[in-house]
Amino acid sequence: MRHYIEGAAQYASEVAPIPIINAGDGAHMHPSQCLLDLYSIYKTQGTLENLNICLVGDLKYGRTVHSLIMAMRHYNPTFHFIAPDELAMPQEYKLYCKKHGIKYYEHTSFDEKEIADADILYMTRVQKERFSDLMEYERVKNVYILKNSMLENARPNMKILHPLPRVNEIAYDVDNNPHAYYIQQAKNGLYAREAIFCHCLGITLEDIKNDTTIIDSKF
To answer: Model's pTM, two decimal places?
Structure first.
């Protein structure tokens, strides 16, 4: 269930006789995206522990970054919240970080200095549909644009993630940079969501391995 109202999926789960998968509820949470993000981070870094993670762009309405903060509390991350004042991380998530001992720093500038120490650079788009004031949207829509030249001092292991779709926040020449991982990240979403469906249907990995019809159809 994907819905523009915060809490819609939770309400549906309380009245529906079947499992409800939250595919994003307003500016609140996006747990299925969070699972594929965790998988992508682990796949690229070999760990989820002790990572420097830069969250860039729309941190006010960006439900994917809200979910990621809550999931990463188990792994001792250091977050860098990079956003203009109009799109800063909401106070409730900063209080959540303090409550759970999550280190974070806030920045309004976005340049090579912030990127240099990052293990994960998580870009987000500025979401036009979240703005009631279009003039405010026009002021901030292109405030942060990631360019190839900004990646020259990046750590060798650093990977760029993005929940997609993108607008102008990542220059297209970055697509060919070895740090770019957002296309593979989208592919990882297929595997993560297949796993969610299997969980809801009570299908185990052993069930799939032993199902010759699935194997035969693939090979």
So the answer is: 0.85
